[in-house]
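Meet today's protein:

…
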Amino acid sequence: MYSDSSYARTPTYRGFDKFYGFYSGYIDYYTKEEENGYLDLQDGLQLETDETYLSSDTHASYIFAEKVDEMITDHADTYGYGDDNTQPFFLYYAVQLVHFPYLVPDVYSSRFSPADRQIVV
């Protein structure tokens, strides 16, 4: 936790049952570090420890999409589907992709030559 903050300001202390993400303004998609070089990929109140997720080969956007899918599936498995489900479910999924840093997975950037790429700042 950062020195100018406290756990009382985190999502799990503000009404959310689960949290997966980062506390700083942004993280590098591959290193999962914030601007000062500290790891900032949180699973609840704990730093992420899964080696696959922390691998510099894994783009953070894929991890977040996987976690969202897990939360939706877990809720449906626990409370049922459709009319059988009377337990409300709210998911706040704020996507970092439209913000700095501009680090696109190779599968997308390789579709265009460097001359055709444009980064709008």
